[in-house]
Amino acid sequence: MAAQDLPDAPSTVLFAGAQQPQTPSNNRQSNPAQAAADQAASASTRLPPCNRINWGWRIHNGPKVSGPCQEDPLQLIVNPGDVTPLTPTDKLVLAGRVTVDPFNLITVTGYSAIFVAANAHSAYGPGLKGFGKLTGYSLLGDAQGNFLGIYAIPVLAHEDPRYHRMPGSPVHRRILHALVHTVVSQHDDGSLMPNYATLLTYPISAELSNLYVPGIGSNGPSTAKRILLGYATDPSGALIAEFLPDVAKRIHIHVVFVQQILLQVENNSRAQ
Questions:
Q1: Domain encompassing residue 153
Q2: Concatenated DSSP letters for 108-170?
Q3: In a domain, 176, yes or no
Q4: Would residue 134 count as lying in a domain?
Q5: In the Cβ-directed half-sphere of 209, how many Cα atoms lie within 13 Å?
Q6: How do residues 78-101 score in pLDDT, each as one tens digit?
């Protein structure tokens, strides 16, 4: 049999077939003008960033955006839609941002001042010294909880630490969604999973607080009581996150300011 009568080797056929689809790509690469046009078209379809107020820390001061926009992923409360998943670095940045947020610092210091003024004989003592001690312990406990619940546990469990609102759903479904958030959260890929961040942060924080917070009961029953109180009151934060933005649009109040006040009062009450 002549050599020209032999069929092509399978590898040769596959290689030739694999080369054919690459021709347009190669042409595009050899045409810088076409590549630039494709990139410009992709950029033109990208949604503008929404108005960002990350827990009181405004990182985007551009004009207000009306209509479809790209949700800022670095915030604890997000609306449904195409929300960018968080990387481990994003979760660490978010935990730090929440801790040093001006509204958080205002509520911590404000509550500490009121508490010390009303309880001069507490374990923190009276006056500026007591105010300073309570503020310091409160900020340390806040940073501890944020590190565990927003960064460390979500990174290990591949969990999304944000609360995803359901503004377009019926009210009863939104209430149920907020109530079950204590035990059900979202995976980084968007699927449902146990809320390890909440379920583990309360007992771990309670045990750590026993080591350094003055004036709290560190025995088993007292610690268990604080953990159970944390679980019982946790849905209040989700309910505020779910519904208060609807009210804020009408009466112009800052959602996070109200939420932080309530959560700070709640956190300090657990420590007593």
A1: 86-271
A2: HHHHHHHHHHH-TTSTT-SHHHHHHHHHHHHHHHHHHHHIIIIIIHHHHHTEE-SEE--TTS-
A3: yes
A4: yes
A5: 32
A6: 888 767 899 999 999 999 998 998
